[in-house]
Amino acid sequence: MKSKQIPIHSNFIGRRQEQEKLLQIAHSPKAQIIVMYGRRRVGKTELLEQTFRDRNILKFEGVEGLKGSEQLKRCYIQLGYYLKKKKRPFSGHETWMEFFKILADALRKGIWTLYFEEVQWLADQKDEFISDLKWAWDNHFRHHPKLLLILCGSSPSFLVNKVLHSKALYNRSMHEFHLKELSVKEVKTFLGSRSHEEVMEAYLTVGGIPEYLKYLKEADSVFLGICQNAFSSTGLFVREYDRIFTSSLSSNKHYQKILDFLSRKKFSTRDEIAHHLGISSGGEITKVLEDLERCTFIERNTPYFADFKSLLVRYGIRDYYIQFYNKFIRPQLNRITLGDFDENPGMGLDVSSYQKWLGLAFERFCRSHHTDLADLLGFASVRYRHGVFFNRKTQDKNPGFQMDLVFDRDDHVITLCEIKYQRRPVGMEVVHAFEDKIKLFETHLQLKKKSFRRVLIASHGVQKAVKTGAYFDTILTLDDFFGS
User: Fold this and answer.
1) Which of 74, 80, 214, 227 could bridge to 88 as Cys pair (CB 3.0-4.6 Å)?
2) Cα gap 21→334, rounded to integer Å
3) Hey, where are the domains in the chain?
């Protein structure tokens, strides 16, 4: 049996924790199943192949748009190569069960990794692939002590509902991996000598997605890389939006409508989303929102004092690239397609509007990295509730306002964070505005038994007057997020 040869990727970085867990599973004395899912381009394939490159790997990959019989045919052809047969007769009547039986017989000896990529396409979104795999596992694969079976895909909905939650493979030595984007520190390593400002700009624009970052790394500057790939007619970011829905979210018509709707708003309630779709706020909308959360495309923003299922929950776009696409690429898609910016892609991006947008993206970044902030602020060992605080404007005496991030700590302290992302140091105006917010916050919640800690997160620091005024208990800058 000939296995797939995986070359060493010299630029592969990060993922140490994931690799350690994967190798620990692989060293088990019995057969194991790994189920990995994650957003398109997040680096699932690279992680798996680099981690298990020293094992014998047989890889079978689903192809977008092919029917189940065609997927099976391609796998039989690939199996023929692995078995060192140039051609393997395929009548069209074969089944996945027969395919798995041939594999099981061929893998009785040795250390093997059986790797199925884009399982949702291999299965053609149906149950036959999984049910036949269950039969093969129970009767054959589980008896091979050095066999590792990997099911991987960019459709979290299929992998979770049809595999992890299915009765077919339930509780059969399965290990779940939801692979998320690189951390901002890993992005710093990936981009090499770029400044902290450029690294954060890259992260806030396309997230920690290795494939996107690769194109920014190759450019003279992160800004130029963004423009070249977003506003040139052949740019990667121009068509990537549609490809995301094909690979991850092709099974429901509501997915793209929700993302399009949320991209026009900072936050939106469940009822507002359902009303936009013209459906009831029941089980259907719940499933769709859960799928989008699993893909890490959206996030729920719950006031820190509210329950996880509270009616006050608001949803917003979490994925940085999707936010950027809908704000800057989509409105100019016709001009981009016609090549209006091909000679000078930088003309496609309004810098002033982009800087304001980066400010909102930085707020989302800080909220999603609350554990890092708790560590930086010295209370990581204390239990806390966290979240944005907002109230609607109802009267002149009680105007609407928002606290960017609130930590309600079990040590009777509330840490209030004001978040500013601008290219110049923040001046004294932030002190006056924040003090007004605190007064409204105290009035609204009538908090008497807890003390406040005031934190300013200012990307590019503060003016001397703010620092010497000692109004804020702690001031954090970009450097703090990178450990320097």
Assistant:
1) 80
2) 46
3) 16-179, 184-365, 369-481
